[in-house]
């Protein structure tokens, strides 16, 4: 019997071909008929260490210290494809953390391990083991504990553990934490094997990383390791499955780079073991992962040894704004939030009123200021709600600087969250915004504290969020405004007013249209837009429709991600979103592919999607 892949009218193929397609050329072309590999874009790691011979050739440039470890056979018996640890205090690798590996908001840790011993750290932030750590425990148990920053190793969060490890065999192991949902997960051989909601926390990931041994523990990992990967977001199951084969960097010209970089600026491909193992790199699997049969991960899930590991996903409550959490095993997170009528989102995190009528303040700075530079003129109007609640059409040429409140955040007087303090004659929100903008153009956040002090910075929130009551001190320059609290910043995001055009593409699938209310958030290098509501007119989201709307927002910098969701109201709320394109007036153009349902009854039951800006799109000629 012969199996053939057939090209369909829409350009897709049906048949036994995975991640490859048939490439046909006319006579005389350099390429004839036959399979041509499609290299799919992978998520970019903040740290990638193959842990093979090449990685260790220049340990100084790779910022790795290796003690009493050998290079050994890797997965698929690839020569010198792994490092072997002896199971002793003096046998370990330590990787310097210069800040790029500090994935304190969201994280995914992946590694391939071949355990031969009983207990020990696989990956541990902090040589003393006080940071986030992934362990082998009691031979077959995979164990992770997410510790919080500033806790000095105090075990305040419940760990996750389950018996899935196989001794004397290669296992892909991993752990992830998503700050958006508060959900922590354990991974084994590309499958999620344990999940729990641990709440919104700031992770302890700011110290060096140890593999194999920690200074304050007498248990040590014995066995082999290869392909350590660290990401600053929680990866999905499909992505983790693809990364079971170690990715490899590409040079800008597409050639393979034999050096070992640990930053995300270069391209990557799935190729490390593919040639040696004669397998499909794109498939993310191989013989060394297929040894599990009746004793596979699916049959070992849930065999915990500690009663504390069996906890409801609703404790602590992941739902915000007085939402009620209910266990729901049909949901991938294991819970569902029942939101008050004025809020929506997976965690009730979106205020419908604020998204429909966002409170955005404005101030003006002279274009002659060298730090600010000249403002871009324009005439596109956008609804802006002022402090007194009135709405007005503000044209771009009227607005110099926009700023919006993010909330109250904890501070530490010995190590401030927002690093730069500026002097004000009188403390007001407007004066703080203007002074920070004129101090350093790279700043995008300002915070007011104790009614008198103004701080500026490029990031915020490392000590966690507080209730608004903690930032209830009035400003000494304007008694109508709040200027933080004692060691608490009232934090704002600000930027030059910029027009963003959001174009939605509804799929052509039967029933693809929606009459629910849709909300989105753009996330860029400088900050996020907070949630905004799209025009609720149902005709704009009928099957096959395209709609374009413009929003005036603080400058977000280069866009990286966006969140899109709806409130599941109306008579036909399910929505099949093909993609979204976003352009800004400075020429930036981004595409956010989706091709998924936003529905509680279709496509996995998700009303909320997070989309990555996978590619820039050319601007439309004027």
Salient structural properties:
11-stranded antiparallel sheet; Jelly Rolls; single chain; mainly beta; disordered N terminus; 622 residues; 44 strands; 6 helices; 37% strand; 5 domains
Account of the 3D structure:
The protein has 622 residues and is mainly β. The chain has five domains: 1-38, no CATH class; 47-300, Jelly Rolls; 317-345, no CATH class; 361-494, no CATH class; 498-616, PLAT/LH2 domain (Lipoxygenase-1, Sandwich). 6% of the residues lie in helices and 37% in strands. It is built from six helices and 44 strands. The strands form eleven sheets. Strands 26, 29, 30, 31, 32, 33, 36, 39, 41, 42 and 44 form an eleven-stranded antiparallel sheet that branches. β31 (445-449) and β32 form a beta hairpin. The N and C termini lie far apart (55 Å).
């Amino acid at each position: 019997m012969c199996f053939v892949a057939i090209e369909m009218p829409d350009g897709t193929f049906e048949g036994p071909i995975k991640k490859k397609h048939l490439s046909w050329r006319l006579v005389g072309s350099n390429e004839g008929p036959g399979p041509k590999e499609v290299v799919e874009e992978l998520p970019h790691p903040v740290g990638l260490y193959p842990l093979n011979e090449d990685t260790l050739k220049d340990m100084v440039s790779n910022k790795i210290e290796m003690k009493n470890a050998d290079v050994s056979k890797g997965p698929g018996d690839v020569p010198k494809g792994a490092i072997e640890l002896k199971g002793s205090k003096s046998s370990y690798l330590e990787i310097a953390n210069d800040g790029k590996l500090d994935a304190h908001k969201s994280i995914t840790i992946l590694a391939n391990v071949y355990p031969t011993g009983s207990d020990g750290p696989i990956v541990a932030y902090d040589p003393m083991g006080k940071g986030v750590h992934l362990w082998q425990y009691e031979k077959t148990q995979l164990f992770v504990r997410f510790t919080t920053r500033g806790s000095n190793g105090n075990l305040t969060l419940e760990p996750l553990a389950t018996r899935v490890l196989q001794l004397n065999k290669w296992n892909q192991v991993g752990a992830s934490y998503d700050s958006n949902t508060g959900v922590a997960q354990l991974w084994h051989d590309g499958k999620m094997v344990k999940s729990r909601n641990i709440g919104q926390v700031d992770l302890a990931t700011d110290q060096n990383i140890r593999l194999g041994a920690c200074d304050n523990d007498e248990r040590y990992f014995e066995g082999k390791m290869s392909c350590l990967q660290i990401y600053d977001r929680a990866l999905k199951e499909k992505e983790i499955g693809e990364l079971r084969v170690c990715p490899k960097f590409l040079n800008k010209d597409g050639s393979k780079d034999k050096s070992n970089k640990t930053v995300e600026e270069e391209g990557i491909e799935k190729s490390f073991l593919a040639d040696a193992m004669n397998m499909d790199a794109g498939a993310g699997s191989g013989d060394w992962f297929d040894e599990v049969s009746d004793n596979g991960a699916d049959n070992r899930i849930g065999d915990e040894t500690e009663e504390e590991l069996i906890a409801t996903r609703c404790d602590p409550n992941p739902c915000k704004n007085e939402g009620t959490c209910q266990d729901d095993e049909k949901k991938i997170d294991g819970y569902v939030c029942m939101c008050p009528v004025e809020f929506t989102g997976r965690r009730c995190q979106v205020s419908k009123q604020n998204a429909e009528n966002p409170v955005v303040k404005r101030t003006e700075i002279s274009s002659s200021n060298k730090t600010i530079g000249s403002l871009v003129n324009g005439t596109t109007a956008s609804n802006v709600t002022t402090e007194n609640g009135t709405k007005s059409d503000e044209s771009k040429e009227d607005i110099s600087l926009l700023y919006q409140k993010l909330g109250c955040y904890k501070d530490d007087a010995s190590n401030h969250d927002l690093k730069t303090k500026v002097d004000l004659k009188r403390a007001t929100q407007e004066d703080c915004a203007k002074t920070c903008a004129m101090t350093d153009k790279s700043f995008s956040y300002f915070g007011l504290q104790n009614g008198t002090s103004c701080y500026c910075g490029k990031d915020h929130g490392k000590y966690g969020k507080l209730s608004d009551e903690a930032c209830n001190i009035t400003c000494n320059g304007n008694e109508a405004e709040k200027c933080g609290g004692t060691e608490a910043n009232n934090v704002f995001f600000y930027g030059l007013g910029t027009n963003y055009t959001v174009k939605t593409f509804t799929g052509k699938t039967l029933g693809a249209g929606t009459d629910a209310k849709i909300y989105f958030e753009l996330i860029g290098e400088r900050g996020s837009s907070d949630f905004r509501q799209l025009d609720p007119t149902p005709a704009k989201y009928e099957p096959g429709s395209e709609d374009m709307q413009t929003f005036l927002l603080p400058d977000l910098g280069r866009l990286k991600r966006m969140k899109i969701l709806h409130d599941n109201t109306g008579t036909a709320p399910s929505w099949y979103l093909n993609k979204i394109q976003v352009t800004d007036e400075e020429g930036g153009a981004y595409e956010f592919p989706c091709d998924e349902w936003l529905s509680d009854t279709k496509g996995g039951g998700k009303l909320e999607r997070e989309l990555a800006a996978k590619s820039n799109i050319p601007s439309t000629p004027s």
